[in-house]
Design a protein that fits this description.
The protein is an alpha/beta fold. Helices cover about 45% and strands about 15% of the residues. The strands form two sheets. It has a seven-stranded parallel beta sheet with strand order 3-2-1-4-5-6-7, sandwiched between helices. A six-stranded parallel beta sheet has the order 10-9-8-11-12-13, sandwiched between helices. α3 crosses α4 and α11 packs across α13.
Length: about 375
């Protein structure tokens, strides 16, 4: 059976869906991927998946361009002629679903976060809600990654709750992301921010907190791992990043496909995001027994149990973030170790990628 997985960028499919696609492939399915072509497209091909490029402008608001996007999806889906299409990210979920419905192809959508449109309410938010309402009526199955997003969609009549299900993100390989021995210790203590360098990820608040703590704890290391994401409206500029580096308050580690190797050096992962679907890095950190400081918002608090596996702070509040980071730094080693152990237990029980694969296989089998 031909199954399409469509997202906004190739990087997203490669980083979040490869284990699932390999499992489906092992079950005898032929896997096609559809996304904007970036440097990860060839990696998808190397994994044995077909790849079809689609030109997506994630910041476009022109209705004519949106119609063109639907037409492009239509052409690609008609050419592949799959039995099922699985979407992820806003534009594929909306425009890909509309195109698939025109061809009578069932769709499984994954609402993996609400994005900037829902964080900053505007006229564009109203348009986005209308588009979601129109398109998700045509979807066969809709996965959400946290209950708050599901309830928001249901409350706004954007989706029929009967076709919805909450699944725990994209999962984590708990064998690959395993704890490092002798992680604890305040000498060379490292706080690590992992994520795209977007203001919506809380990068500004992280820098504010670092400025408050660096003078007080000069031996503490504050690091950032993640790419500049210039195509996003809330992305920081390269000039801003360079100014932080020149302040000598953070270590910028660039971008890496071997995230677990970077996580191995961290005593605490920090993500002050404004909202998530279900944060991938937080479940990876949990699987590696790393305590976390993150915001008390959907998609973050779903991973972290406050005072048990990490600390929750107020959103958009650098001072409270600094207080929680300092609290983590000053914890006795044994207490941080217990936090990490509890995080690992939770990752295995709730966030293991095998659970996600099982949900998708069940949804696919229910359709065919």
């Amino acid at each position: 059976m031909k199954i399409v997985f469509s997202s906004n960028i190739s990087w997203s499919i490669y980083n979040f869906r490869t284990p699932l696609l390999k499992a489906l492939q092992k079950n005898g399915h032929e896997i096609y991927t559809v996304a904007f072509k970036d440097e990860y497209a060839h990696k998808l091909v190397n994994e044995g998946f077909h790849f079809e490029a689609i030109n997506l402008n994630n910041n476009a608001t022109n209705p004519l361009e949106d119609l063109k996007t639907i037409y492009n999806y239509y052409k690609i889906y008609k050419k592949i002629n799959p039995e099922i299409i699985c979407h992820n990210a806003i534009k594929p979920n909306i425009y890909g679903t509309i195109a698939a419905s025109m061809l009578g192809i069932p769709t499984i959508n994954n609402i993996s976060g609400l994005g900037t449109l829902f964080i900053k309410k505007s006229f564009s938010t109203k348009i986005a809600k209308w588009l979601y309402r129109y398109s998700q009526k045509k979807a066969t199955k809709v996965f959400f990654q946290n209950n708050a997003d599901l309830e928001l969609f249901v409350k706004n009549n954007l989706v029929d709750k009967v076709k919805c299900q909450v699944i725990p993100g994209s999962g984590v390989n708990t064998v690959k992301f395993k704890p490092k021995e002798n992680r604890n210790g305040t000498d060379n203590f490292q706080f690590l921010f992992v994520g795209r360098l977007l203001y919506d990820k809380g990068i500004r608040e992280y820098i504010d907190a670092v400025r408050m703590l660096k003078a007080k704890y000069p031996k503490t290391n504050f690091a950032i791992l993640g790419p500049l994401y210039k195509n996003n409206a809330t992305a920081i500029s390269e000039e801003t990043l360079n100014s932080w580096i020149s302040e000598d308050i953070i270590d910028y580690l660039g971008q890496s496909d071997a995230v677990q190797e970077v996580l191995n050096n961290a005593q605490c992962v920090v993500l002050p995001s404004y909202r998530e679907g279900l944060s991938k890095v937080l479940i990876e950190a949990s699987s590696m027994s790393i305590p976390i400081v993150t915001t008390n918002v959907p998609g973050c608090r779903d991973v972290v149990l406050n005072d048990e596996t990490g600390f929750l702070c107020k959103v958009k509040n650098g001072e409270d973030l600094a207080n929680k980071m300092e609290k983590m730094l000053l914890l006795p080693d044994e207490e941080r170790k217990i936090m990490g152990m509890k995080a690992r237990e939770r990752a295995i029980a709730i966030f293991d990628e095998k659970i996600i694969i099982k949900h998708y296989i069940e949804a696919i089998n229910a359709i065919v």
